[in-house]
C-alpha cells in the first residue's frame, strides 16, 4: 500500500470472487485512490474478473480471525477499512493471511446469505500450537505423496499441486496412484537415463514419475504372475496420449534390455501411425485423440515381449466433414499436403489445404509448415517400422487424396423436377477421383446421384435430392476413412502378432495401457460426446470399485476396524445410459430403426421415459436438447443427427461400386472379411500361375517342334488336373508368393480378428441388405466397452489421473479454479483419504509366511498368532498394521521395514554359511598339512639312516675300498651356459612370432625326413605343436610390465611334455626336454646376435584409436533412434521423434551427433577415481578405469597373474576349484600392494595365485560385467533361441566401458586356455562358469539376496555360453592357422626344390649349353637361355610372394 489522505497516492486492493460452492476462486488486484467507493470497486472488479455484469454483487471485508464477513455499503470507502488492518496485511493481503475483500453475488434487493468462514482463525492457531508442541508435523509446501500432507483438505491438495507445478514437478503420488498435471510444454525428464534411474525402484523411493508406474507394473507382473493394466484418465487436453507414449516407451525399454527385437520396434512405431490417422487439433488440445485405444503388451513369464494387440474404440468420423471453430481435421491430411514431395504431389494430384472443402475452416493457421514436414517424415519412418512397404504407403496416400477430393464433388439440379436428377461436377474432380479409386467414371456418377432398390420383380432407381446426395457423399468419405483406419489397425496387429502363438500354446502375461477419450463438454455436444462421456462414466465406476468399494468391502470381510469413507457413486448415471429396456442407448436404437422417427420424437421419448430421473435434466420445450448429470458435471446434448450417426453405414451402391475397382487395395478395404479376401487373392494368383505355365508350355512346344502348338479346350481345370502333384505344389507356392504380402495367411488373420473388434465394426460398416439389420454404432460401442471392462477386471490396475492445467493451452500456467474443479469431480480428496487411512500391503497368511519365513520363529504352527507376536516384538504401532481372518494388512513404510529386515537376515545367513564353509576348507587344509608333516618326519628319520650309511661308506673308503662311479648319459646333461641364455626376458611380441616360425621349421624338418620317428621325436612333435598354440595366443597379451623370460617358456614346455608322456613314457621326458632346450638355446643365441648386429628398435603397442562417435570420457556411445521427444543432455535442445541420436549404454546420456565434442563429464558409473585416491589400496578394490591407461589396456597386476598361471599352472588339477592357503594369499596380496615389481610369483603355490585372481575380481567396486548391464545379460539368457542369446550377449558386451571390456576379454581368453586343457586340469567351461560368474557378473550389495540366489543359474549359464562360443572360435582360428602353416610348408618345399633344380651357368665350373633350333615348326615356341632364366625367376618370385602373403594372413 502506498499513499495517505488525499495527496493522490494509490492503494492496492486484492479482491477475491466466490464460486458456486461458496469457496474463493479467482482474484484480481485493483489500484484505487483513497476516496474510491465500494460501488466503483465492484464495477472495476466485475470487469477485470470477467464476471457476469447482469448480476448483482456486494463487496465484503473478510477477517478470518473474527470468523465473519462485513458487507460494505456502496458508498463506503474500502481503503478506510484497510487502514484498520494490521500493518503486515495492509501492503499485501492474500486470502491466506486472513484479511481480504470478497466479491459476493447477492439478490436484487441486496440481501446476502451470511456465513462464517470455512476455516476460522481459531483452527489455524490451534493447529499451529499443536505443531509447536510436536503433536503435528510441520506444514510442508512440497510433498511427493499427497498422503503425507499433515492437514488434508482440498486447498492443501491444490496448494501442493500448484507449488510442485511451479517447480516443474508435474507428477505427484496419491498412494500408488499418479497425478499428472499437463504443462503444455516439453520437460527434459524422459530421456533413457530416467528409465534406468527408476528401474527396480520401489514406488516412492525416487520422485514421482510416469516411468515409476511403468517399472512397478512390469516387475509386479513378473513377481505376482498376474496381468497388470494402467488406466490413464482425465478430460480432453489433460495429456493422456503423451502419458501413454511415455508408458509404452518405458515398458519396451524395460523389456528389450539393450537388445531390440522386431516386436519392440513395431510397438514403438505403431504410436505415431495411430496418432497421425486418429488424432486432431481441437480447442482444448493440439493432439487430441479422437478415438480410444487399448494397447495390450504380452510378455513371456521371463519378461520378454511376446507380442501385442491394439484395440480401437469409436473413431470420430464426423470430424472428417465438419468441425468446430479453430479446430482441424485429422493430422495425416496436413502431413501429406505439406510434407509430400513434388513427385508425390503429381502422382496423387494434391492441392493446397484451403482448396479442399473438408479442410476449409475459419482461421486456418498453417504457420507450422516446418513441423508438419517433419511429422510427415516421422510418419513415414514409423510406417516402415510397422511394416508398411513403399507401395502400401502409396496406396494409403492415394486413398487419403480420394477422400479429400470427395468433399470437392458438387451437385446442381438439372431442372425443377426431382426426377430429372442431379448434375455432378466439376468434371476434373470426377476424373481424378475415378483415377485414384480405379473405378469407371460413369459408375461413380451413378452411385453419387441415385439409389437402386431391388424388388421381387423389378429394379427401381430413385434419384437423390441435393441434400441427400451431399449426405451420401459425406457418408462415403466417412466410411472410407473408417475402413482405412480399421485396415491400418489390422495391419498393425498383424505386425505385432507373434507367429509362434498360432503353433504353440504358451501362457503369457500382459500389461494393458488404456488411452481413451477424456470427458468432453463443448458448446455443441452431439452423439460422439454422448458415447465418450458414457465411456468415462464406466471408467469412473471401475475406479470407484477398486479404490473405494472393493477396498472397504475387503476390510469389512476380514473383520478389521475400519470407518467407511463416503464417495460419489455413479451407478445411477450408468443405468440411465445402458439399463434395459429404457436406457438412453436402447431408446435411441428403437428410434433409429423406426422409419418415420425424427429428432423431435426421439427427444420426446427420452423425456417421457426418464421424467423424474435425478440424472436426466429436461430442457425447455422448444430447445432440441437434454442434459445428463455426469460425475464431472452437467452436459447438454443436442439431439440433431443422433439417429443418423447411430446408423451411419456405407450405402450398398457405394460398396458395390468400390468392389468393382481395378485396384486390389480398394477391394480389400470394402471386403467383408480379411481372411476371405486373402483366400480369394491366393486363388486368383493360383489361376494366374496356371495360365503362365500353360503359355510357357505352348511356347516351348513351338520352339521344339517348329510348328504352332494346337490349343486345348482352353479350360484351366483340365490343365491343372494334368499337372503332377509336385507341379501343383509349386503352383500353390508361387500363388502364395504372388499373393498380397500385407496379409500373410488366413489363420493369422482369424487370430487377430478374434483378439480385436475389427470383424464387428467392419462388417457392420460395410453391411449389405441381407435380411438382418446390422448393429447400431452405439450397440457396437457398448459391446467393445464391455469387452474392455472384462479385460480390465482380470488385471491388477494402476491409475494415472491427468489434470488439465488451464483451458487456453498456455505453457506452465496453473488455473486454480479449473484444477480444483477436476479434483472435485474425480473425488481426489476422498481418494487420498482412503489411500492414507488404508493399507497398501495385503498378504494372506501363507504369502506372508512364504515371503518373511526367515524372520518368523522356526516352530511357527499358528500363523495368525505367530505373526501377531512377531509384530509386537518388532514394536510396530497399532495403527500401522492389522491382522484379519485370513490376511495381514500393512502400511507401506512397515512393509519396506520388513523387507529391509529380511534382506539383513538373509545376508547374515549367507555370511554364516561362508564362514562355515571357509572353516571347513581350513580344517581340510590343516589335516592335509598335518599328514604332510608326518610324511616329512618319516623322511627325516630315513635320512638319518642314510647319513649313517654314508659315514660307513666313507670309513670304507678310508680303508682303501673304492666306490663305484655313477655315470650320467650325455643326453641328460644340461650345459651350464644354456641356463644363462634362457634367463633372457621377452620384451617384444615379435620374438614370440619368430619363435613360433622357428619351431614350425623344426617340426617340418622332422616330418620331411621320411623315416620312422622315435618315441622321443613323437613326443617332441606333439608337445611342440601344442606349445606353439600357447605361443600364438600370447602374441597380443605380452605385458611389457611383467616381461616373462624364456625360462618360463621352458618350464611350461616341460609341464606339457610330462602331461603328454604319462607314466608309461616317463623316462623319455628328460630327453625331450633337453632336446627342446637345445633348440631353444640356439634360437635365443641367434636373437642375441641379431640384436648385436641391429640395434634394438623400440616397439610400442599401438592401441586402436577410438572413434569419437563411440567413446568419449568412458562413455560408450552408440546410435539410438528416438521414439518420443527427448532433450539433448549437452545443449538442452529438443531431439525429435524418429531422429538419430547417440546414447551412452552405461549412464544413458543422450546427445546430438554435433554435441559429441561438448561432452566434458565422465561416465557416472565409472567416474570413481576419487575413491581410489582416498583409499590406501593401490591394486585391489580399485575401479578398472583407474588401473588402466593407454599403455596398458589391462590392469598390470591382472596381466601378471594371468600370465603366470598360463605359464606354470595350466596342467594343475583343479587349478581354480581348489583354494590356496589363506595366509599365503594374504601375504602375496600385501607384497603386491607394497611393490608389484619386486614380487616373484614362483615363490608361491599356483593355487595361491589363482585364489588372488578371484579375490581381485570380487573386490572390484564395479564388476567387469557391470551392474548397469546385469539385467541385460539376464535378459539375454531368457531368450528362447540360442542364436538370439549369443547375439544379445555380444550386443551387451559391446556396450561395456572400454577398460572393463578389455579386461574381460583378457580374462575370457585366459579361461578358454584353461578349459582347453580340461583333460589335465579337470576344469570344464561349466565349472569355470560356476566359479567366475559370482566374480564378474554379480548383483549390487543393496539388492535382495534371494533374488541374487535365484539369478545364479542364469549368470552361470551366461558365462558358460560365452566360454563355449569363444572356445569354438578359438578352435576355428587354430585350424585356420594350421591350414595356413601347411600351405606355407608346401610352398617352401616347392621353392627349395625349384632352387635345387635350377643350376647357374657358372656354378661349379659347369656350362649349360642350350641350342636354339632354327627349324622349329610353326606354332611351336622355343626358348633361349635368357628366356628360361627369366621364367624361373618369375616362378620363384611368385612362390616368395605366396609365402609372404601366407605369413601376412597368419
From TrEMBL:
Q: Where in the cell is it found?
A: Cytoplasm
Domain Phorbol-ester/DAG-type: from-to ranges: 1114-1163
Keyword Transport assigned: no
Classification via InterPro entries = C1-like_sf, Kinesin_motor_dom_sf, Myo9, Myosin_head_motor_dom-like, MYSc_Myo9, P-loop_NTPase, PKC_DAG/PE, RA_dom
Task: Please state every residue range assigned to the domain named Rho-GAP.
Answer: 1182-1370
Please give the residue ranges the record annotates as the region Actin-binding.
Answer: 785-807
Cellular component (GO) terms are:
actin filament; cytoplasm; lamellipodium; myosin complex; ruffle
Q: Zinc among the record's keywords?
A: yes
Gene Ontology biological-process annotations: actin filament-based movement; intracellular signal transduction; lamellipodium morphogenesis
- Record keywords, A-Z: Actin-binding, ATP-binding, Coiled coil, Cytoplasm, Metal-binding, Motor protein, Myosin, Nucleotide-binding, Repeat, Zinc
Q: Myosin motor domain: which residues? A: 141-903
Show where the Ras-associating domain sits.
9-108
The molecular function terms in GO held by this entry are: actin filament binding; ATP binding; ATP hydrolysis activity; GTPase activator activity; metal ion binding; microfilament motor activity
**Binding positions for ATP?**
234-241
Task: Provide the family line.
Answer: Belongs to the TRAFAC class myosin-kinesin ATPase superfamily. Myosin family.
Q: Which PANTHER family match?
A: UNCONVENTIONAL MYOSIN-IXB, UNCONVENTIONAL MYOSIN-IXB-LIKE PROTEIN
What protein name does the entry list?
Answer: Unconventional myosin-IXb-like
Q: Which gene encodes it?
A: myo9b
Amino acid at each position: 500500500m502506498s499513499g495517505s489522505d488525499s495527496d493522490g497516492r494509490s492503494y492496492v486492493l486484492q479482491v477475491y470472487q466466490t464460486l458456486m460452492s461458496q469457496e474463493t476462486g479467482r482474484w484480481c488486484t485493483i489500484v484505487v485512490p483513497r476516496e474510491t467507493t465500494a460501488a466503483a470497486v465492484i464495477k472495476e472488479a466485475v470487469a477485470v474478473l470477467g464476471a457476469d455484469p447482469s448480476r448483482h454483487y456486494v463487496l465484503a471485508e473478510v477477517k478470518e480471525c473474527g470468523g465473519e464477513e462485513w458487507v460494505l455499503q456502496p458508498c463506503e470507502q474500502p481503503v478506510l477499512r484497510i487502514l484498520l488492518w494490521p500493518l503486515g496485511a495492509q501492503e499485501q493481503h492474500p486470502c491466506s493471511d486472513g484479511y481480504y475483500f470478497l466479491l459476493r453475488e447477492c439478490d436484487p434487493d441486496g440481501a446476502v446469505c451470511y456465513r462464517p468462514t470455512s476455516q476460522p482463525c481459531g483452527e489455524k492457531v490451534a493447529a499451529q500450537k499443536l505443531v509447536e508442541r510436536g503433536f503435528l508435523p510441520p506444514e510442508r509446501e512440497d510433498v511427493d505423496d499427497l498422503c503425507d500432507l499433515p492437514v488434508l483438505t482440498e486447498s492443501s491438495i491444490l496448494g501442493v499441486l500448484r507449488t510442485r507445478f511451479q517447480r516443474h514437478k508435474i507428477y505427484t503420488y496419491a498412494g500408488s496412484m499418479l497425478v499428472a498435471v499437463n504443462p503444455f510444454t516439453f520437460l527434459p525428464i524422459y530421456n533413457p537415463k530416467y528409465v534406468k534411474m527408476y528401474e527396480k525402484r520401489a514406488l516412492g523411493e525416487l520422485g514421482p514419475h510416469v516411468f515409476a508406474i511403468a517399472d512397478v507394473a512390469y516387475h509386479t507382473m513378473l513377481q505376482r504372475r498376474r496381468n497388470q493394466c494402467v488406466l490413464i484418465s482425465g478430460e480432453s487436453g489433460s495429456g493422456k496420449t503423451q502419458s501413454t507414449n511415455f508408458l509404452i516407451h518405458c515398458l519396451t525399454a524395460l523389456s528389450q534390455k539393450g537388445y531390440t527385437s522386431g516386436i519392440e520396434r513395431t510397438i514403438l512405431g505403431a504410436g505415431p501411425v495411430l496418432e497421425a490417422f486418429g488424432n486432431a487439433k481441437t480447442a482444448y488440445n493440439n493432439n487430441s485423440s479422437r478415438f480410444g485405444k487399448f494397447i495390450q503388451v504380452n510378455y513371456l513369464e521371463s519378461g520378454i515381449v511376446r507380442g501385442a494387440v491394439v484395440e480401437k474404440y469409436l473413431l470420430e468420423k464426423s470430424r472428417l466433414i465438419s468441425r468446430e471453430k479453430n479446430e482441424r481435421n485429422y493430422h495425416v491430411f496436413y502431413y501429406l499436403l505439406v510434407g509430400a514431395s513434388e513427385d508425390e504431389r503429381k502422382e496423387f494430384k494434391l492441392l493446397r489445404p484451403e482448396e479442399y472443402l473438408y479442410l476449409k475452416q475459419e482461421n486456418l493457421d498453417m504457420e507450422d509448415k516446418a513441423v508438419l514436414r517433419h511429422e510427415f517424415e516421422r510418419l513415414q519412418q514409423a510406417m516402415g517400422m510397422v511394416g508398411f512397404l513403399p507401395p502400401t504407403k502409396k496406396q494409403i496416400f492415394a486413398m487419403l487424396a480420394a477422400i479429400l477430393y470427395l468433399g470437392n464433388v458438387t451437385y446442381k439440379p438439372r431442372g425443377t423436377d426431382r426426377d430429372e436428377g442431379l448434375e455432378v461436377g466439376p468434371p476434373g474432380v470426377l476424373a481424378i477421383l475415378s483415377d485414384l479409386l480405379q473405378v469407371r467414371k460413369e459408375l461413380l456418377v451413378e452411385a453419387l446421384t441415385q439409389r437402386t432398390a431391388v424388388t421381387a420383380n423389378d429394379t427401381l432407381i430413385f434419384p437423390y435430392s441435393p441434400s441427400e446426395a451431399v449426405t451420401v457423399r459425406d457418408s462415403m468419405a466417412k466410411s472410407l476413412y473408417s475402413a482405412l483406419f480399421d485396415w491400418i489397425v489390422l495391419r498393425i496387429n498383424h505386425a505385432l502378432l507373434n507367429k509362434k502363438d498360432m503353433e504353440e500354446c504358451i501362457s503369457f502375461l500382459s500389461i494393458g495401457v488404456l488411452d481413451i477419450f477424456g470427458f468432453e463438454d463443448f458448446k455443441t455436444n452431439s452423439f460422439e460426446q454422448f458415447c465418450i462421456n458414457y465411456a468415462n462414466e464406466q471408467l469412473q465406476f471401475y475406479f470407484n470399485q477398486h479404490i473405494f468399494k472393493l477396498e472397504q468391502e475387503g476390510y469389512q470381510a476380514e473383520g478389521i476396524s475400519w470407518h467407511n469413507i463416503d464417495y460419489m457413486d455413479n451407478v445411477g448415471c450408468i443405468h440411465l445410459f445402458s439399463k434395459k429396456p429404457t436406457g438412453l442407448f436402447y431408446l435411441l436404437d428403437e428410434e433409429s430403426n423406426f422409419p418415420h422417427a425424427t429428432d423431435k420424437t426421439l427427444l420426446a421419448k427420452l423425456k417421457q421415459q426418464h421424467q423424474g430421473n435425478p440424472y436426466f435434466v429436461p430442457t425447455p420445450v422448444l430447445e432440441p436438447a437434454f442434459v445428463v448429470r455426469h460425475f464431472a458435471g452437467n452436459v447438454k446434448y443436442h439431439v440433431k443427427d443422433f439417429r443418423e450417426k447411430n446408423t451411419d453405414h456405407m450405402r450398398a451402391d457405394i460398396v458395390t461400386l468400390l468392389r468393382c475397382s481395378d485396384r486390389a487395395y480398394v477391394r480389400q478395404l470394402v471386403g467383408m472379411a480379411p481372411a476371405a479376401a486373402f483366400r480369394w487373392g491366393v486363388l486368383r494368383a493360383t489361376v494366374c500361375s496356371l495360365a503362365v505355365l500353360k503359355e510357357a508350355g505352348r511356347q516351348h512346344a513351338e520352339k521344339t517342334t517348329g510348328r504352332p502348338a494346337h490349343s486345348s479346350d482352353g479350360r484351366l481345370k483340365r490343365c491343372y488336373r494334368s499337372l503332377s502333384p509336385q507341379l501343383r505344389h509349386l503352383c500353390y507356392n508361387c500363388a502364395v508368393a504372388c499373393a498380397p504380402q500385407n496379409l500373410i495367411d488366413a489363420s493369422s488373420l482369424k487370430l487377430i480378428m478374434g483378439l480385436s473388434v475389427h470383424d464387428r465394426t467392419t462388417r457392420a460398416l460395410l453391411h449389405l441388405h441381407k435380411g438382418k439389420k446390422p448393429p447400431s454404432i452405439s450397440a457396437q460401442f457398448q459391446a467393445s466397452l464391455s469387452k474392455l471392462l472384462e479385460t480390465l477386471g482380470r488385471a491388477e490396475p494402476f491409475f494415472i489421473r491427468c489434470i488439465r492445467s488451464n483451458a487456453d493451452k498456455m505453457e506452465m500456467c496453473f488455473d486454480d479454479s479449473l484444477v480444483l474443479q477436476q479434483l472435485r469431480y474425480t473425488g481426489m480428496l476422498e481418494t487420498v483419504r482412503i489411500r492414507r487411512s488404508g493399507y497398501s500391503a495385503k498378504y494372506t497368511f501363507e504369502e506372508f509366511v512364504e515371503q518373511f519365513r526367515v524372520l518368523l520363529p522356526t516352530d511357527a504352527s499358528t500363523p495368525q498368532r505367530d505373526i501377531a507376536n512377531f509384530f509386537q516384538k518388532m514394536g510396530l504401532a497399532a495403527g500401522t498394521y492389522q491382522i484379519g481372518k485370513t490376511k495381514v494388512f500393512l502400511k507401506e513404510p512397515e512393509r519396506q521395514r520388513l523387507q529391509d529386515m529380511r534382506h539383513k537376515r538373509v545376508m547374515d545367513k549367507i555370511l554364516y554359511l561362508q564362514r562355515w564353509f571357509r572353516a571347513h576348507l581350513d580344517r581340510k587344509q590343516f589335516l592335509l598339512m598335518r599328514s604332510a608333516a608326518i610324511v616329512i618326519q618319516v623322511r627325516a628319520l630315513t635320512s638319518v639312516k642314510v647319513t649313517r650309511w654314508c659315514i660307513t661308506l666313507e670309513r670304507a673308503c678310508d680303508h682303501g675300498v673304492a666306490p663305484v662311479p655313477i655315470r650320467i648319459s650325455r643326453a641328460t646333461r644340461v650345459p651350464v651356459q644354456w641356463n644363462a641364455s634362457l634367463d633372457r626376458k621377452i620384451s617384444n611380441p615379435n620374438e614370440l612370432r619368430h619363435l613360433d616360425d622357428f619351431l614350425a621349421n623344426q617340426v617340418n624338418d622332422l616330418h620331411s625326413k621320411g623315416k620312422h620317428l622315435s618315441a622321443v621325436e613323437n613326443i617332441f612333435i606333439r608337445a611342440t605343436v601344442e606349445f606353439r598354440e600357447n605361443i600364438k595366443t600370447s602374441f597380443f597379451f605380452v605385458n611389457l610390465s611383467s616381461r616373462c623370460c624364456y625360462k618360463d617358456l621352458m618350464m611350461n614346455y616341460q609341464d606339457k611334455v610330462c602331461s603328454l608322456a604319462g607314466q608309461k613314457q616317463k623316462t623319455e621326458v628328460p630327453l625331450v626336454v633337453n632336446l627342446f632346450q637345445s633348440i631353444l638355446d640356439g634360437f635365443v643365441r641367434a636373437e642375441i646376435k641379431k640384436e648385436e648386429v641391429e640395434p634394438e628398435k623400440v616397439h610400442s603397442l599401438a592401441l586402436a584409436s577410438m572413434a569419437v562417435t563411440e567413446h568419449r570420457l568412458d562413455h560408450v556411445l552408440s546410435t539410438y533412434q528416438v521414439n518420443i521427444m527427448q532433450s539433448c543432455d549437452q545443449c538442452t535442445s529438443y531431439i525429435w521423434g524418429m531422429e538419430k541420436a547417440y546414447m551412452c549404454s552405461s549412464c544413458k546420456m543422450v546427445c546430438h551427433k554435433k554435441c559429441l565434442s561438448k561432452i566434458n563429464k565422465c561416465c557416472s558409473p565409472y567416474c570413481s577415481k576419487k575413491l581410489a585416491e582416498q583409499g590406501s589400496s593401490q591394486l585391489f578394490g580399485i575401479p578398472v578405469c583407474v588401473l588402466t591407461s593407454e599403455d596398458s589396456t589391462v590392469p598390470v597386476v591382472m596381466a601378471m597373474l594371468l600370465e603366470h598361471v598360463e605359464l606354470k599352472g595350466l596342467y594343475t588339477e583343479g587349478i581354480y576349484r581348489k583354494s590356496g592357503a589363506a595366509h599365503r594369499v594374504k601375504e602375496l596380496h600385501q607384497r603386491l600392494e607394497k611393490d608389484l615389481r619386486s614380487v616373484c610369483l614362483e615363490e608361491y603355490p599356483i593355487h595361491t595365485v589363482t585364489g588372488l585372481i578371484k579375490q581381485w575380481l570380487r573386490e572390484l567396486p564395479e564388476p567387469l560385467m557391470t551392474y548397469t548391464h546385469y539385467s541385460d545379460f539376464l535378459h539375454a539368457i531368457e531368450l528362447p533361441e540360442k542364436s538370439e542369446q549369443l547375439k544379445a550377449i555380444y550386443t551387451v558386451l559391446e556396450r561395456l566401458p572400454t577398460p572393463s571390456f578389455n579386461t574381460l576379454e583378457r580374462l575370457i581368453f585366459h579361461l578358454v586356455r584353461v578349459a582347453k586343457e580340461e583333460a589335465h586340469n579337470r576344469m570344464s567351461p561349466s565349472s569355470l562358469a560356476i566359479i567366475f560368474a559370482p566374480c564378474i557378473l554379480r548383483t549390487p550389495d543393496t539388492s535382495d539376496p534371494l533374488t541374487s540366489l535365484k539369478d545364479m543359474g542364469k549368470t552361470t549359464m551366461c558365462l558358460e555360453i560365452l566360454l563355449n562360443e569363444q572356445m569354438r572360435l578359438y578352435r576355428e582360428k587354430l585350424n585356420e592357422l594350421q591350414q595356413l602353416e601347411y600351405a606355407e610348408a608346401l610352398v617352401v618345399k616347392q621353392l627349395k626344390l625349384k632352387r635345387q633344380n635350377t643350376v647357374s651357368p657358372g656354378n661349379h665350373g659347369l656350362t649349360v649349353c642350350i641350342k636354339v633350333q632354327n627349324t622349329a615348326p610353326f606354332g611351336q615356341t622355343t626358348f633361349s637361355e635368357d628366356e628360361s632364366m627369366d621364367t624361373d625367376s618369375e616362378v620363384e618370385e611368385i612362390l616368395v610372394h605366396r609365402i609372404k602373403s601366407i605369413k601376412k594372413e597368419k
